[in-house]
Amino acid sequence: MNPFQSVFEAIGEEKIKELVSYFYQEVETIPELRKLYPEDLAPAERRLYLFLLQVFGGPQTYSEERGHPRLRMRHFNWEIDGKMRNHWINAMISSMDKLDLDPNVRELMLNYFIKVANHMINHE
Ligand code: HEM
Predict the structure, then answer these.
(1) Cα of 75 to ligand 1 centre, how many Å?
(2) Which CATH number fits domain 9-120: 1.10.490.10, 3.30.70.141, 1.10.260.40, 1.20.120.1200?
(3) Longest dimension (CA), the chain
């Protein structure tokens, strides 16, 4: 089993929902990042929430609604350089800090986010 899939069992749906909600509150405070997203953040919030539920071992609703994630390809719409990656990761770290996470689970999640965020870079 993918080790990230134990996250859902450890923290559950509600914490993932809170995480994503905090994340988009953070996005609102970082203009460079905010400008990439549509005005209404609610649909984006739902997509990230369903995606993370799936990745972390919960229900597969994301793929039922959106098909194969093809995340890197979906991110080609935006120029993502190292700075933008850092904005995203910083927003996620601040959001994780607002949850009372077990340190082992936090490390697992952070490793996952860093790995995927690096993979999204498509611009120098
Ligand atoms: C590296 C910096 C990143 C930037 C600048 C970025 C930016 C964006 C933007 C602007 C969207 C469109 C919002 C929407 O309408 O759904 C989006 C979608 C999405 N992002 Fe990212 N993202 C980044 C990294 C990540 C990472 C690390 C993950 C996963 C861990 C992720 C997961 C997603 C998902 C699941 C969607 C929705 C895809 C869909 O179904 O259409 N992103 N991202």
Answers:
(1) 6
(2) 1.10.490.10
(3) 38
Domain limits, the chain: 9-120
Residue type present at position 119: H
Q: Which of these, 45, 21, 13, 34, lies nearest to 94 by C-alpha position?
A: 21
Distance from the alpha carbon of residue 14 to the mean position of ligand 1, in angstroms: 20
Q: Strand runs (DSSP E) across 46-111, as ranges?
A: none
- Is the model's pLDDT at 66 over the cut of 70? yes
pLDDT in tens, 92-115: 999 999 999 999 999 999 999 999
Nearest atom, ligand 1, residue 69 CA: 40
Tell me the backbone φ, ψ of residue 49, rounded to 5 degrees. -60, -50
- Please name the residue whose Cα sits nearest to atom 30 of ligand 1: 113
Q: How far apart are alpha carbons 8 and 29 in whole angstroms?
A: 28
Report the distance separating Cα 64 and Cα 19, nearest Å: 22
